Input
Amino acid sequence: MVLALLATLVTFAPVQANIVCTVSVALTISDVSAMRIGHNHATICWNTDGKATSQIFYDTVSHDNIADYAYYTGERKALVEKHKVNLNNLSPSTTYYYRVTSALGGTEFVSDEHTFATLPSPKGWKGWLADLLLKFTSPFYLSWLW
Output
């Protein structure tokens, strides 16, 4: 009888706990380089130690803040460890400053600033014509005309 009375007085409620687990992911960007540099193009390559997206921010002047760069490529959503992005419609004999970015799990990782210089225009009338067409078909020039 005493045992039955104790059993009715003691009740156990289930314990619920909300556990939040936060995982931070670090991504290392390495081996950043400019390759196949021409008078109006270059290919930028880099590696990451995990599969991530690819994007480049670039300009003809140096910047401390990535948001200040005048030009950028679209983000390539394909997750890769070896990145290669082409830059086109560049100006001849010009130094470009650039940073590569790779994103993983919604977090963007940004490299230090790097530089490369495009080659001079090819000699002859074909080079002169190519430069002229590039200049007068650039988005900046066309927006200035309007």
User: Anything to note?
Assistant: Residues 14 and 80 are 46 Å apart (CA to CA).
